[in-house]
């Protein structure tokens, strides 16, 4: 019997479409200040408008951030508030897992809110903040850097505002979906409209919708 030696063929690199298929996604959610908001929010909006809060959300609906007077959280969020703007970014699986683990660790550590740090982040002053305190944009910036998301590696977390993170996201050519929860709900309704009864027209169900941001 004659044996034939087979030469292994080189494996071609994955196509851009296949590479995109293995990427994970995160959402950054930015809250725009409202006249009835807490005075700290309105002060931050004056220093660096228009956003005063930011959160990071993962594919399973788990989100992480911190509110004034509370501790870092990592829990499911629905984002029914129409004043949130959304930026969606692709991340590699390793970075995604690192960010997820970082959020879990910070929430389990009970990190408190840093009122002074939140205000000073938008001011040209030198200061140091304790590691057991944080604010929303610092926390989210540290999450993004834990995942080595390239758009945010040059940010200094304790000097970062929500608007700075938003600008960095919008400047990226990798952001592939920008919207607000209200608009997403409308898209879902248009794609899957509810069943309607025949022969019934309810003028009260007609609404005028504006898609201005």
Largest sheet composition: 6 strands, antiparallel
Helix fraction bin: 25-40%
Structural class: alpha+beta
Assign an overall shape. Answer: globular
> What is the count of DSSP helices, taking H or I runs of 4+ residues?
7
Strand percentage, roughly?
15-25%
Mean pLDDT: 78
The sequence of SSEs as H and E is: HEHEEEEHEHEHHEH
Q: Outline the low-pLDDT stretches.
A: 182-213
Distance between the termini: 75 Å
- The neighbouring-strand order within the major sheet is 4-3-2-1-5-8
Radius of gyration: 22 Å
Give a written overview of the molecule.
With 213 residues, the protein is an alpha+beta fold. Helix content is 33%, strand content 18%. It is built from seven helices and eight strands. The protein has a six-stranded antiparallel β-sheet with strand order 4-3-2-1-5-8, sandwiched between helices. α3 crosses α5 (136-146). It is globular and about 40 Å long. The chain starts with 15 loop residues before the first helix and ends in a 22-residue tail after the last helix. Mean pLDDT is 78; it is low at 182-213.
Compact description:
The chain has 213 residues and is an alpha+beta fold. It has helices at residues 16-22, 39-47, 93-108, 115-120, 136-146, 162-171, 181-191, and strands spanning 24-32, 51-57, 62-65, 73-76, 84-91, 112-113, 133-134, 177-179. The protein is built from seven helices and eight strands.
């Amino acid at each position: 019997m004659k044996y034939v030696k087979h030469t292994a063929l080189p494996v071609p690199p994955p196509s851009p479409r296949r590479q995109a298929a293995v990427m994970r996604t995160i959402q950054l959610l930015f809250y725009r200040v409202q006249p009835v908001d807490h005075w700290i929010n309105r002060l931050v909006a004056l220093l660096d408008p228009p956003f005063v809060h930011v959160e990071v959300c993962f594919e399973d609906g788990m989100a992480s951030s911190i509110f004034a007077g509370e501790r870092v959280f990592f829990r499911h969020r629905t984002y029914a508030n129409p004043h949130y703007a959304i930026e969606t970014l692709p991340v590699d699986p390793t970075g995604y897992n690192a960010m997820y683990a970082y959020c879990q660790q910070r929430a389990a550590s009970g990190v408190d809110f840093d009122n002074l740090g939140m205000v000073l982040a938008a001011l040209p002053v030198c200061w140091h903040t304790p590691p057991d305190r944080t604010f929303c944009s610092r926390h989210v910036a540290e999450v993004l850097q834990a995942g080595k998301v390239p758009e945010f590696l040059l940010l200094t977390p304790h000097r970062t505002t929500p608007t700075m993170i938003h600008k960095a996201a919008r400047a990226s050519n990798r952001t592939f979906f920008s919207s607000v929860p209200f608009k997403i709900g409308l898209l879902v309704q248009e794609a899957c409209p509810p069943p309607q009864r025949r022969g019934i027209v309810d003028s009260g169900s007609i609404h005028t919708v504006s898609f201005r941001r």
